[in-house]
Structures are given as structure tokens and as C-alpha cells.
Amino acid sequence: MKKTILLTQKPNGLRTSVSKWLYMMLGVFISLNGINRLTSSPSSSWTLFFGLILLLCGLIMFTLGLILFHPINKFSPRLVINDNEITVREDVFYRTKLIKWSDLKRIEFKSSAIEFLFNDNRTQLIKLPKTGETVSEIKKTLRELADKKLITVNGG
Questions:
Q1: N or C terminus of the chain with fewer C-beta within 10 Å?
Q2: Are 107 and 57 in a shared domain?
Q3: Domain-ending residue, one of 14, 40, 68
Q4: Residue in 112, 113, 134, 127 with CA at minimum distance from that of residue 15
Q5: What is the pTM of this model?
Q6: Tens place of pLDDT for every residue, the chain, 156 residues?
Q7: Which residue in 55, 60, 53, 77 sits closest to 24, CA to CA?
Q8: pLDDT, position 74
Q9: Where are the alpha helices (DSSP H) in the chain?
């Protein structure tokens, strides 16, 4: 069993595919507005500066649409749970964390995070997204596999 759960915050609870296209289309429109301001005769240096800012923001928005909402992209925030390990990338700028089931002693669900207690008594805290559907899906999947592996699960 392998399950990939995106940890990306979706605006207003929209589906992932809708959010992805929303980000990308807004990025295109903002970029085109910036290009329009740059190519039309700029009346002042502020118009030129504002056009550059719009172009840059539009490109960033488009890129975020590609990165944040694609489950196989190595930069997208996601949780991958399979029979051997748990792979977590909390944010685009964070490193990917690898947690092996064989190293786990206990999983504890907190209000906005998951704490993993390892056999060598060290702990690791993973922050959860704010959306309820995603959190319940993560907890349900982790609980199912932890029960199979005979790992104690507290809370949640």
C-alpha cells in the first residue's frame, strides 16, 4: 500500500486540481498585466517598476501552481505513507524527512501536529495542515498501518 497526501493549503477548500489551475491562470493574467504595463508607453518610472513587479509576481504565482499541487513533484509539500516508511515534506523550503516504521515506538496525534517517538527515545514533530479533510485522512491512514505494525497510537 502506498498513499500520497498533499499538505498544500487549498484556498477556500477547493479541490487540488481547481486550486492548481486557479494559481496558474492568476499567474498568467498577472504576468500579462505586467507585460502590458511594460510595453505600453510608460509615463513614469513608477509604471515601469510596477510592471516589473506584476510580471515577477505572476511568474511566481504560476510556478507555485506547478509546484504546490503536483503529488509527484519533489518540492510539493506531501506525506507519503507506504508499508516500509513515512516520507514527509512539510513545506517547499523544508527538507524531506524519512521515518521508518521499524524505528517507531509510538505515534501521538496532537491538535495541529503528529509526534513520532522512536525506539531510541528521540522524538520528531510534524506540523499538520489546517484543513480537516487532509488531517483526518492522514490520521486514518497512519492509524491503519500502525495497527498492522503493532505500534501504539495515542490521541486524535
A1: N
A2: no
A3: 68
A4: 134
A5: 0.69
A6: 788 887 766 555 666 677 778 889 999 999 999 999 888 876 778 888 999 999 999 999 998 888 777 767 777 788 888 889 999 888 777 888 999 999 999 999 887 788 999 999 899 998 887 667 778 888 888 898 888 888 888 886
A7: 60
A8: 75
A9: 16-39, 45-68, 132-148
Same domain as 62, residue 95: no
DSSP class of residue 71 equals T
| C-alpha to C-alpha distance for 101 and 12, rounded to whole angstroms | 34
41 and 89 inside one domain = no
The 10 Å Cβ neighbour count of residue 70 is 16
C-beta neighbour count of 145 within 10 angstroms? 19
**In angstroms, rounded to a whole number, what is the distance separating the alpha carbons of residues 3 and 7?**
13
